[in-house]
Amino acid sequence: MTINKLHKKLTKLIENGDGRKQVKINKRTFNHDLEGDGCCILPVESCDIETIPLIDDDGGTLNDSGEEKLETVAVLSGV
Q1: Could you tell me which residues come within 8 angstroms of residue 54 by beta carbon, excluding any fewer than 6 positions away?
Q2: Among residues 7, 21, 39, 59, which is most buried (max CB within 10 A)?
Q3: How does pLDDT run across 9-29, given as a tens digit for each residue?
């Protein structure tokens, strides 16, 4: 993804009222054949708004009343 494309996507998210949302990275989507050779800078392929489970310090996703805690964020994903 180029800077221009990312800027365009982020501008659209801001215009839609999502400008104050957190940005998260989906680590599992970032894979490259050269990682075994030490490559650790990998390309971003998408930036989208997603609703994800909010995990607390103990690894749980439920609140005190037993409901799943959710958070809406912008997610950067790889290939």
Answers
A1: 61, 69, 70, 71
A2: 21
A3: 999 999 999 999 999 999 999
